[in-house]
Description:
Blueprint: E1 35-36, E2 39-40, H1 46-70, H2 75-113, H3 118-124, H4 126-144, H5 151-158, H6 171-203, H7 207-216, H8 219-238, H9 240-245, H10 247-253, H11 257-267, H12 289-311, E3 315-323, E4 327-334, E5 344-348, E6 358-361, E7 371-376, H13 380-388, H14 399-403, E8 407-408, E9 421-426, E10 438-444, H15 449-462, E11 475-482, H16 492-501, E12 507-513, H17 519-529, E13 544-546, H18 551-561, E14 566-572, H19 575-587, E15 595-600
Parallel strand pairs: 10-11, 10-14, 11-12, 12-13, 14-15
Antiparallel strand pairs: 1-2, 3-4, 3-8, 4-7, 5-6, 5-9
Amino acid sequence: MPKRFSNLSFDSGPPRPLGYSFTGPNASQSSDRPNNNGLTFLSRNKTERGRLQGLMHTMSKVGDQRGAGSKALGWIEKMKVWMVNEGSKRIFFFLWIFLHCMAFAFALVHYQIKDNFVTARSSFNWTFSVARGAAQVLHIDVIFILFPVCRNFISLLRRTPLNDVLPFDKNITFHKQVAWMIVLFSLIHTIAHMRTFALLAIATNTGIIGFLEFNFITGPGATGWIMWLALGIMVWFAMEKRRRAHFERFWYSHHLFIIFFIGWQLHGMFCMIQPDRPPFCSAGTIGVFWKYWLPGGLVWISERILREVRARHVTYISKVVQHPSKVLEVQIKKENTNRRAGQYIFINCPEISYWQYHPFTLTSAPEEDYISVHIRCVGDWTNAFAKALGADFDGKMTKEEEAHGGKVVTAPVNKVLPRVMVDGPFGSASEDFTKYETILLVGAGIGVTPFASILKSIWYRMNNFGKEKKTRLSKVYFVWVIRDFGSAEWFHSLLQAVEAEDIEGRIEIHIYLTAKIDEDKMNNLLIQDVGANTDTITKLRSPTHFGRPNWDKVFESIANKHPDTDCGVFFCGPAGLSGTLHQMSNKYTSPMGCRFFFGKENF
């Protein structure tokens, strides 16, 4: 077995040159500050400063040449750049919208010319064709609504060549798109039938009473409004802000889809509008909804059966470590588990709720004999889970525990740790890091967790531990943006271990502290840092930056260092920073040079 990360020491060799620039609110307070073409760095010693000056002088020349070349890009080159991060997603979305338009158009024409609905068209005019056309599109949507949430199915497809064509990492986004199409065409279908009910009330001389009876007493009307009630509640609690603020409400309300589907099946069995000649439909007719639901429904049911089977596997918590900033590390032993670095799992604790499964990224490497997750306890479920495991965030840690990054939680006498059920692991964007020779890993706060698994796996491969082959990665850039370094001390030993074994300099670690630092503390850090081989704060050879990254310089540096390489950019964190990185990946992608492929964690 390999030695523990916490016991690994690191080499005290000279610091490596930085590939990134530094800009921050306190940068002007440093007197040891070279300036080259208006760029500012927080230098660590004279050797590094000289290397940086030479590096930036070279980068400036190459950057000017690259900028001049980018202005001459033709439409073919622009199309190649567009295809890197946008092409497959935009084309897929366009084809999806085109499919809806064509299906709706063909359905309109079909019901306008079909010879056994002459009476219906003469009675209701365009209302009949629009309602039937919208229903036909809804049947197409129901085929696809469940596939994106079948995570085992998606994980299998990600390992096929289809992953290079279809955006499987956007499965939840696609699920939302299908849902909004169901809302849209349900609205069109309902409006059309409101006019139908009004015309029927006029034809039967029942007035407003008849209109209300057609809406709420007839089979099609009653089932339709039940479906709308279920759909409205699901959509309301699935909105991004409400879902994040009250996940339990989202989770339970989303199971109203069962009522929605049952209502849909019954809705078409009442046959309010009959054809002109046989075969006539009747209340005993099964309907057609089930035919469209069957493909996705069978896969979804098999996924739920597989979840229950996995829940019966021998699974137990082997270790619980309480870290600062309300972060809880949970190590789990589970039989029959095959995983890859960058994947995630769903955890259920029946003691809290038998029905709730919550996603967490794996922080353990495939080479380890356990799976682990790091949970930031900020919500109702996570706090309840931490309490059930015996964690006490109100108590203070000893200096020795703080030095080791946390304290091991021991269960009280005569108490057994609660049972957990694990579903997964499932594939994610970060799983594709082995496809590239150069990768940029960006984590924000607790969003660093997916990269713990990746960095551990790289560490094991560099040391030839485990069954995995040595990685083909030639360069790894790791950027961690946090408010204060103490907020994730559990990550310290891993970074030190990885840096110590990185003899070939294939991994660059850059930590950015965004919390405001007063002038006295900054001067104290600079004094302690003079002539030091390691950073004063992190004890790493890589220096700590203060402020936020200058992403233009980050991407420009990588593009110039790796001009003919595909670089994978993997991110986990807030949506705002995700948009910035996505934009930078597109901006600095060159059709004949470095191409940045952006990927974000989605649960």
